Amino acid sequence: MRKFIVDTNVLFSALAKIGISRLLFVISPFEFYMPEYSIQEVRKYEKLILEKSGLTKDGFETLFYSVVDKINVVKEKEYASFIERADRIIGNIDKNDVPFVALALSFTNEGIWTDDSGFEKQSNVRVWKTSDILNLLAGD
């Protein structure tokens, strides 16, 4: 089973609009992982997501839980020993990306699914764009 770390921007995209990201969570046979703090980030921007998506609060909650149900949410203690190394890899690019790189370093996986170009400025963890995930799925 292929395993991917999911960046928060992919989750935002899946929640904010009907599109490929949302569809991939529904149809993909892959396993997805995300640092727990990402859930807090989504909750912090919930009002903005509601505005962009046009969803009601109840509709958002239903969608949120159906998407998050497809993701293994990982507590920081599970990847804490990799944070220092991850900070050296991407901390000077974006401190908010450190947990994703640390999580990616903590177990065998395919890399990080993101549409954030900042991840491409490092070469320690493979980066997958949404189009790459779609192409991989089409080829499987």
Structure description:
- It is a single chain.
- This protein starts with a strand and ends with a helix.
- The chain has one domain (3-139): 5'-nuclease (Rossmann fold).
- The model has no long low-confidence stretch (mean pLDDT 94).
- It has a five-stranded parallel sheet, with helices on both faces.
- It is 51% helix and 13% strand.
- With 140 residues, it is of the alpha/beta class.
- The protein has helices at residues 8-16, 20-27, 37-44, 46-53, 57-68, 83-90, 98-106, 130-139, and strands spanning 3-6, 31-35, 71-74, 111-113, 127-128.
Q: Count helical runs.
A: 8
Structural class: alpha/beta
Q: What's the oligomerization state?
A: single chain
CATH class: Alpha Beta
Number of strands: 5
Determine the mean pLDDT.
94
How would you describe the shape? Answer: globular
- Report low-confidence residues grouped into runs of 5 or more: none
Kindly, what is the distance between the CA atoms of the first and last residues, rounded to a whole number of angstroms? 11 Å
Main beta-sheet annotation: 5 strands, parallel
Rg is 15 Å
- The fold-level CATH name is Rossmann fold
Write the H/E string, N to C.
Answer: EHHEHHHEHHEEH
The CATH superfamily is known as 5'-nuclease
The domain tally reads 1
The CATH architecture: 3-Layer(aba) Sandwich
In which order are the strands of the major sheet placed?
A: 3-2-1-4-5
